[in-house]
Amino acid sequence: MFATGDLEKARQALELWAQNYPREVVAQNDLGANYGTLGQYEKGLAATETAMRLDSGSALALANLFATYIEVNRFEEARSLAVEAQTKKLDSPTLRLGLYQLGFLQNDTAEMAKQVNWAMGQQGTEDVILAAEADVTAYSGQLSKAREFSRKAVASALRADEKETASGYEADAALREALFGNPTEARQRAAAALALSTPRDVEYGIALTLALTDANKNSQTQITKLMDDLAHRFPEDTVVQFNYLPTIKALVELNLGNPAKAVAVLDAVRPYELGSPSNISMSLSLYPVYVRGLAYLSAKQGTEAAAEFQKILAHRGIVQSEPIGGLAQLGLARAYALHGDIPKARPRTRISSPSGKTRTPTSPFSLLPSPNPPSCDDL
User: From CA 73, how far away is CA 164, in angstroms rounded?
Assistant: First the structure.
């Protein structure tokens, strides 16, 4: 789990451990986490529920179960568990971040504000909430505010001497800018991230950023360098080999005008595509699904594209406030428009911003790889 990253071998060992030592809480907790990374959430739920039954006073077991409830869209059960945790004095920063995300998922701006107020001034905690605020404000279309929150998150992490965490926030901001069609800002944030630290998830996030902004194929050398480094440093890592590298390769094929090849490359990802792979300060869930949706759009296969974007929208508890959660709405609209279903393509869903106001979600129409994006009137 922690050295080679071979999650299939880790799963086998953990299952054997849990089978032979059925009262061992650590085995169940780690097994639940492993299943979540692999995208097997129902199995993860069973393991985390077992851990909670074995030790109802464990803050870690409770936090893991709370997170799993959110991942499987059982939001009310997650909220009830959080109330139980605070009654039992099993509060934790992890639980507080989860409550913030739960507030976002349920349009509960009062809950979100409560968690922000709790975190401010707490070194090692406020940066996490500030980064979450950046994602949420960007999701609701307030990109300038999102940039400011990201800057504050980076500064807070650096004050706590957490350079790797800060690099994750910079990479997260870079990827967001790339997805929203701002290549110059994206590359600036990517350079800032690489200057701080180059852990696994940051390198992947930067490679995604460069691939999303590489319509003119000027960054191929740097993308290849990042991919080669990931492959060399993590040769047995399940996430790298069967999630990260195929997703980047697929984007490269899209930039070369080969959507069919992009879809073929992503076949290797299917067993793991719903997993929650990242383990630092950025969220990278379901990007293979999103890129496959873009590939189908590029190939003018509207029905197939719609299925991929619907998959993202159906797993809100996994995607949470990632930018692709909002952009999946745009992708779905484009997919409907491809086969002439204009009524379905028109936006109807309304979401809440952190200010409590509601608005129809909008996204830039410069989203790659569409060279001639439809206007708002077209949708």
Answer: 30
- Spatial separation of the C-alpha atoms in residues 63 and 164, rounded to whole Å: 23
Q: In degrees rounded to 5, what are phi and psi of residue 351?
A: -125, 160
Are the beta carbons of 347 and 332 closer than 8 angstroms? no
The CATH code for residues 174-359 is: 1.25.40
Domain map of the chain by residue range? Answer: 1-91, 174-359
Same fold flag, 1-91 and 174-359:
yes
pTM: 0.90
pLDDT of residue 373: 35
User: For residue 351, what are the β-bridge partners?
Assistant: 359
Span between the terminal Cα atoms of the chain, in Å: 45
**Per-residue pLDDT tens digits for 54-110:** 999 999 999 999 999 999 999 999 999 999 998 888 888 889 999 999 999 999 999
What does the alpha-carbon distance between residue 207 and residue 227 come to, in Å, rounded to a whole number? 7
Show Cβ contacts of residue 319 under 8 Å, excluding neighbours closer than 6 positions. Answer: 283, 285, 286, 312, 325, 328
For domain 1-91, give the fold: 1.25.40
Ramachandran area for residue 356 (φ above 0: left; ψ -120 to 50: alpha; else beta): left
What pLDDT is recorded for position 166? 96
Expressed in percent and rounded to 5, the helix, strand and coil fractions of the chain are 70, 0, 30
Q: Write the DSSP assignment of 52-118 as a string of letters.
A: HHH-TT-HHHHHHHHHHHHHTT-HHHHHHHHHHHHHTT---HHHHHHHHHHHHHTT-HHHHHHHHHH
d(CA 161, CA 62): 29
CA–CA dist 78, 139 (Å, integer): 23
Alpha-carbon span 240 to 172, nearest angstrom: 18
Q: Give counts: helices (H), strands (E), the chain.
A: 21, 2
34: number of Cβ within 10 Å = 23
Write the CB contacts of 9 (distance below 8 Å, at least 6 apart in sequence): none
**pLDDT computed for residue 280 by the predictor:** 67
For residue range 158-184, list pLDDT tens digits in order: 999 999 999 999 999 999 999 999 999
Q: Which residues, other chains included, contact 314 with Cβ-Cβ below 8 Å and sequence gap of 6+? A: none
Q: Which residues of the chain have pLDDT under 50?
A: 350-379
